[in-house]
Every structure is written in C-alpha cells, then in structure tokens.
C-alpha cells in the first residue's frame, strides 16, 4: 500500500519564486504582451494558469495560439502590470485609486482570483458617497454581490443619495429598480416623488418617454393630502399633467409602507446580560446579548449577537442613524484555579470595528482601529467618528490615545491624545466639539485645531456617571462619588436616599450648576443612563431593591422648569435584568427586521464548573 503524503509547500513556494526570477530576468519567455507602448515579456503557462482569457487564447489551436506578440487594446499598462505581478507572485496590491480599473481589467482578462478580491474590497468600501457608482459597476460587470450591497446602501441612505449627480445619471432600468423598492429608508413618500421628478427633469427631453413608468413607482396614497391636491389639481394642460392625472385615477387606493416609514426610536442595550458572579463560567462564556426596547410599542427586540463573542465594546449611533460597535474583548480559554477547583475565562482585547446593517440584522466589519480598546468612548463629530481612551490600551500614554475614523475612506488616523489617562470617563458632543468628563474635570476637544482645552471644574467628584448633551447644556448624572479623586467612596444615591445627583454645564458661560435631582425611590445601587429620546433629555434608571429585584423607569427632563417627570415605568415582564455594566444608545430601527424577543427572567440556573475525578463538571447552584 502506497503512503499518502501531504503536498510539499516548500517546493511550491520555490517553484513560484523561480517563475518570478525567470520573469524578472526575461528567461525562457515565449510571449510578449503589448499594452500601448509598453511590452511585458511573459510565459504562456503562467498567464494561462491564472487567466481564463489567456488559457483559451493559448490552447485554442487557432493561429492566435502560436503568436509570440499579443496586443491588448484599451487597457492601462500599470494595471496590467499589477495582474502580471499577481500571476508570478500571488501578491495583489489593491488601493482606492486602483481598485475600479483593476476590477475592469480582471473582468476582461478573466482573472477570477483578482476579480473576487477586488469585489470584496469594493463591497467593504461601499458608503453613502459612492454607493450609486458601485451599483453601476456591479450592473455593468454583472456582479450580483456588489450590486446587491450597493443597492442596500442606496436604500439605507436614500434621503441623502437621491440628490447626487451620480443618482441623476442612473439608467432608467436601475432607477426603476431603486424607486420600486419596499426597503427605501424614507419617512415620507414625498421624498420618493421628489427623487423621481429630479431624475426626469435632469434631462426631460430625452426622458419624457419614461414619464409614466417612473411616476408609477410613487405610492400615491402614501402622499399627504396637501401634496396630492397640489400635484393633481390645477395642473396646466400638457403631456405631463395628462400622465399624472391618469396615474392618479388608475392607482390603487392602498399601498405597502416603505421600510423607513416603519422605523421606531428604540433604546439599544449593549452587554444586556446578568452580572457575573463568583467564578460562574456561564456568564463570562456566553455571547454578549444586544437587545433594544421600543418605548412606543413597549416591546423588546433582539439584535444579532456581536461577531466573535465580543464583550465590553463601545457603542455609537450617528446622527444619520448608523449603529457602530468598537473594541472590546474576546474569550480565549478557561484557566483552572487549583485551590478552588474552579475555572475563569482569559480574555484578549481587540481593535475590531463593526457597522450594523439594519435591514439584514447583521454586523458588517469595517477597518479595525489602530489600538485595541475595552469600552472606548465613541462619539460622532463634524462628519467623523472618534474612539477615545479605553481600559485595555497598555501604559498611561497609550490610554490617552484618540483616533478618528473617516467613513468615506474606511480608515483610522491618530489625533491629539487626552491630557491625562482616565479609567472612568464619558464623552459627549456639543457645538461641534467633544467634551470628555470624569471625576471633577472636563476637557474640550476642538477638531479644527486638534487641541484639548481644560474647562470649568465640577462641584462634585464622581466617576461612572452618565452624560448627555441637549442644546447648550451638558448633563452629568449619577455615578459614584470619589474620595480624594482616587478611590470610590459611595454612590450618588444609596439606601435611604430619594434622589440622584444631576450637574448641568452651560457651554456659553463655561459654568457648572446643580440641577434638580431625579426622584429615585429608596433602592440600592441606582444605575442611570442619560439619552436623548424624542428630542428630549431622558434617563433610563435601573433601581435594585434589597431583594435584588431590578426595576426600570424612564424619566423626562423639563428644561424650563428644571424638573424630572416619570415618563414611563417599564414592566418587569417586559424588561428583566440588564446587569450593571450595560451601555445604552438611541437609534431608529425597523421592527420587521428584528426578532421580537420578550426579555423574561432566566429559566436556567446559575452554574459553577468544578473539576471532579479529572473531568470538568457543571454543578447547579443551590
């Protein structure tokens, strides 16, 4: 019986290196590629190995298979050089400036590997600024993956995309495909009507033949009565008004709402899980849960879990309603404690960065951060995303690091570091500046100058507080009081207290003042998260009674009266225990794209893991 051996990878690498050497020294070459005035002496076997185009040419048996010079017309020499380099080395360099031409050339030469890598690169780079162009590229080269991803971005960013020059130049077929979509992220059908009219009027003479097919994509009964009256009555007699009136009479009197019309403002909870207790392996090893709560419907929905069992991420919802998570840690292995016979999980901090595709309920990877960070502060300011600090960055200097993400380029760059390294801090954005708050100090970052400026100190020293900006005011709420600015002393509301501390910063005056306290009940460990909900400052408060039952309530702030009102108590049957370390953000999500998941008391017991007779055994707690 013959012995089966694994392939000799060293020989394969050596063979490829020899081919590269022959190419560089022009040894044994048997064909010359001519691109404009540039010649590339190559080997037919190498070209045929990576390119279906050359394989068919050199093996066809026709006269062209015997030719020693092949002229390639309408191709770029530098791009052909990239593909030849890939054929001889397996190395492919793709950049923003070369990817589109490289994709087009790989399509022509039928270099499948290069084609797939370019496609994946383009899909990853899709954003609001280039999605229409990506749609056209995907359509031109019949790439369904690129076309589908670009269309989803157009649907998601439609309110800002339809005015772009590229959109107005769309083909009639692609325009109809977009306007007919149920998934357009529009809150009013008037937006779709305006997009249709802009496209028609961009070249009315040539596009008048498409008037009926384009306008028929508008869901007329979704338009407001005011718009309907203005559009369909009193129009001057011309070809357009005849078509419009005819459509109005023939359209059905019902419509399916666009996806954007179904959006609900929700509280998004990251790390929504029971607290870890005394060596319990279950809590630390289970994936992080992300849920969201709709105050309007009083329902809880489940978002897809973060990739790779991520925990302790930063979270951000941008003004245009994009959800991002960044950093965190992932479990590596369970380590055994000899004395206690228990296991604990070892974690590794990461630099990951993900965007949430709300239509697909999936997390899409973006360019990783430059530093690994646990619980970084994420803010959006002047068109950029900032990742500030984090617990995992090693050394005091590194903990001060600040980096900025460019969504159009999908890349991070380092910015001016924080003046000090803080373990507990929170960040908000107001008046196009970033404010970082911790203990009793606050620093302001001015993006135009890339500089940090120290602002007025607070009257109390507190950490782990929550902050939010509303208008000209910044609110610093709850948290733990600090003793000598170094050690945690006591919560800002504890047993026997009836309020939670609130401090207000006036940006124009650079002054802090005490605000009205939040009327918390007599519970231990109140946990507050400040958010802006329905354009109003609110807090979600978690109050834990002595028997460990968690209860939640949403309070709303009246700026003029400086008073807090109970806006909505949250039923314990709706929202159970989120734990103490969850992060909270507000975003508009689509209920139909999420899994409705009532947050109920856990049905499984807490467990510990013990080593019994050499085996890891799960033992329920008593």
TrEMBL record:
<dbReference type="InterPro" id="IPR011333">
    <property type="entry name" value="SKP1/BTB/POZ_sf"/>
</dbReference>
<dbReference type="InterPro" id="IPR006652">
    <property type="entry name" value="Kelch_1"/>
</dbReference>
<dbReference type="Pfam" id="PF07707">
    <property type="entry name" value="BACK"/>
</dbReference>
<keyword id="KW-0880">Kelch repeat</keyword>
<feature type="domain" description="BTB">
    <location>
        <begin position="29"/>
        <end position="96"/>
    </location>
</feature>
<dbReference type="InterPro" id="IPR047074">
    <property type="entry name" value="KBTBD2_BACK"/>
</dbReference>
<dbReference type="InterPro" id="IPR000210">
    <property type="entry name" value="BTB/POZ_dom"/>
</dbReference>
<dbReference type="Pfam" id="PF00651">
    <property type="entry name" value="BTB"/>
</dbReference>
<dbReference type="InterPro" id="IPR017096">
    <property type="entry name" value="BTB-kelch_protein"/>
</dbReference>
<dbReference type="InterPro" id="IPR015915">
    <property type="entry name" value="Kelch-typ_b-propeller"/>
</dbReference>
<dbReference type="Pfam" id="PF01344">
    <property type="entry name" value="Kelch_1"/>
</dbReference>
<keyword id="KW-0677">Repeat</keyword>
<protein>
    <recommendedName>
        <fullName>BTB domain-containing protein</fullName>
    </recommendedName>
</protein>
<dbReference type="InterPro" id="IPR011705">
    <property type="entry name" value="BACK"/>
</dbReference>
């Amino acid at each position: 019986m013959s012995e089966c051996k694994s392939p000799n990878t060293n020989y394969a690498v050596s063979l490829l290196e020899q081919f590269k050497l022959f190419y560089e020294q022009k040894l044994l070459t048997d064909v010359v590629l001519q691109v404009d005035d540039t010649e590339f002496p190559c080997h037919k076997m190498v070209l045929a190995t990576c390119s279906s185009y050359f394989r068919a040419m050199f093996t066809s048996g026709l006269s062209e298979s015997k030719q020693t010079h092949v002229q390639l017309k309408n191709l770029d020499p530098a791009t052909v050089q990239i593909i030849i380099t890939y054929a001889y080395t397996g190395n492919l360099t793709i950049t923003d400036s070369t990817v589109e031409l490289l994709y087009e050339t790989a399509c022509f030469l039928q270099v499948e590997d290069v084609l797939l890598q370019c496609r994946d690169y383009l899909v990853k780079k899709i954003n609001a600024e280039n999605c229409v162009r990506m749609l056209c590229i995907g359509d031109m080269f019949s790439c369904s993956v690129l076309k589908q991803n670009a269309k989803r971005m157009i649907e998601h960013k439609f309110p800002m995309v339809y005015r772009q020059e590229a959109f107005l130049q769309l083909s009639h077929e692609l325009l109809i495909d977009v306007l007919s979509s149920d998934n357009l992220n529009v809150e009013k059908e008037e937006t779709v009507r305006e997009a249709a009219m802009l496209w028609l009027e961009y070249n009315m003479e040539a596009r008048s033949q498409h008037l009926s097919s384009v306008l028929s994509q508008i869901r007329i009964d979704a338009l407001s009565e005011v718009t309907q009256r203005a559009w369909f009555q009193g129009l001057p007699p011309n070809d357009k008004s005849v078509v419009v009136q005819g459509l109005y009479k023939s359209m059905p009197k019902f419509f399916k709402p666009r996806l954007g019309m179904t959006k609900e403002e929700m509280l998004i909870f990251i790390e929504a899980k029971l607290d870890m207790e005394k060596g319990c392996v279950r809590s630390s090893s289970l994936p992080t849960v992300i849920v969201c709560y709709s105050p309007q419907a009083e329902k809880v929905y489940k978002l897809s879990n973060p990739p790779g069992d991520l925990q302790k991420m930063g979270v951000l919802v941008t003004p245009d309603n994009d959800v991002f998570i960044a950093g965190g840690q992932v479990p590596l292995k369970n380590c055994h404690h000899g004395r206690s016979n228990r296991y604990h999980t070892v974690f590794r901090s990461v630099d990951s960065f993900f965007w949430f595709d709300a239509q697909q309920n999936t997390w899409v990877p973006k360019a990783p951060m430059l530093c690994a960070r646990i619980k970084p502060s994420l803010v959006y300011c002047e068109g950029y995303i900032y990742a500030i600090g984090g617990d995992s960055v090693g050394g005091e200097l590194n903990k001060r690091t600040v980096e900025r993400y460019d969504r159009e380029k999908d890349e991070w760059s380092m910015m001016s570091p924080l003046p000090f390294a803080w373990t507990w801090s929170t960040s908000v954005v107001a008046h196009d500046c970033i404010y970082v708050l911790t203990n009793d100090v606050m620093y302001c970052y001015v993006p135009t100058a890339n500089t940090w400026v120290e602002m007025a100190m607070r009257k109390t020293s507190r950490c782990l507080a929550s902050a939010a900006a509303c208008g000209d005011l910044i609110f610093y709420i709850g948290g733990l009081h600090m003793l000598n600015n170094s050690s945690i002393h006591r919560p800002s509301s504890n047993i026997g207290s009836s309020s939670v501390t609130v401090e207000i910063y006036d940006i124009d005056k650079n002054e802090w003042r005490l605000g009205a306290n939040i009327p918390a009940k007599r519970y231990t460990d109140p946990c507050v998260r400040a958010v802006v909900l329905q354009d109003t400052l609110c807090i979600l408060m978690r109050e834990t009674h002595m028997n460990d039952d968690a209860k939640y309530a949403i309070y709303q702030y009246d700026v003029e009266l400086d008073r807090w009102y109970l806006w909505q108590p949250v039923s314990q049957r709706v929202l159970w225990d989120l734990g103490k370390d969850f992060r909270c953000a507000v975003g508009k999500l689509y209920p139909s794209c999420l899994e409705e998941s009532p947050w109920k008391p856990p049905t499984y017991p807490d467990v510990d893991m013990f080593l019994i007779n050499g085996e890891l055994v799960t033992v329920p707690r008593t």
